[in-house]
Amino acid sequence: MIDALNMAKRFALDGEPVDAKPYGCGHINDTYCVCCHREGKPQRRYILQRVNNNVFKNVPELMDNMIRVTAFLKDRVVEAGGDPDRECLQLVPDRSGAMFLQDEEGGFWRCFIFIENAVTFQTVEKPEHFYYSACAFGRFQRLLADFPAATLYEVIPHFHDTASRYRDFEQAVKQDVLGRAKEVQAEIAFVRDREADTRVLVDLLAAGRLPLRVTHNDTKLNNVMLDDVTGKPVAVIDLDTVMPGLSLYDFGDSIRFGASTAAEDEPDLSKASCDLGLFEEYAKGFLGECGDMLTREEIEYLAFGAKIMTLECGMRFLTDYLQGDTYFKIHRPGHNLDRCRTQFKLVADMEKKMDQMRAIVARYAG
Ligand code: ADP
Ligand code: GN1
Ligand code: MG
Q1: pTM of the model
Q2: How would you label 13-45 residue by residue, b for 16+ Cβ within 10 Å and e otherwise?
């Protein structure tokens, strides 16, 4: 096991690293908060991450995307008179000037400036937090509208290709490596009943009816930092999956996570539903920032995008459960199954509320 504090010492930090503690609730990377001691000055903090190279097969390409996207966003923040140390994710080089390094076991590490006086939420505590997260992701989409999308590597091919995710799911059911399929027949049937839905967005994209944009692709509430006093958006983080995608992915994934009345892994399913008040907060914030650049068909499919992102994520959790929990970090047996079930509960609830969701989008689309 590589020692995180020793890794921190290889980066060009301001002060002497004295502590590196596991940090945050991400499902993918190993994240540490590093404290640096500075003679006669307050301590300084950094975020150190070991990138998950089981999930990300080509870390140098991923880092190339990240270096260019963060530099692009930094320029936009500076142009707008903002503070780039706080308003955008910023990589810290290692002592040789490289933006990431490899340990002796082949693991990839990188370091970011710690965005201070800001918080990430695991669930919405106040509706306005969700509204502000929507403003942050809507603005993110608008700022990246001029980014040369074709120069970005597709770090995880077919990441939100729901039809391809469906095929992976069927493959996992067929292989059933741990004999778990028999316990999850209801969940398997739930997915199969919606097989046609998994093709809708990919088909629209292939037909040129939805535009490809630069999107974040992982717009969970805990991937945006909000000011800890005002609650207003500070920065969008977790830029590993910034790639060409659909605006509906970013809108949809936020709704999936943040408009739910329960945590993503809540075992008591009676607690999970899609809160239309929160849906409205998000639609208002997102469309307020980027609604004018969306096409008529994007607007038409936004609400459906929320359902598809939720179905896709549930299907991915189920696939990982069937494959023996090799992708998402789990913290208890059955964790991925609990996560899958909350997603399917939300899908069923969204299906009942789809007309209302569409009406809300139409109201804010102007
Ligand atoms: P994962 O891909 O595993 O989700 P993230 O990049 O989202 O990893 O980081 C995990 C958590 O660490 C975030 O939810 C956030 O709380 C915290 N974090 C990440 N980057 C920063 C940063 N630059 N400043 C402060 N906190 C951060
Ligand atoms: C992962 O990295 P994190 O925890 O923000 C996953 C997302 C899922 C999400 C489900 C690279 O996001 O796609 O929607 O878990 N990220 C990757 O909570 O697979
Ligand atoms: Mg994250």
Answers
A1: 0.96
A2: bebebeebeebbebbbbbbbbbbbeeeeeeebb
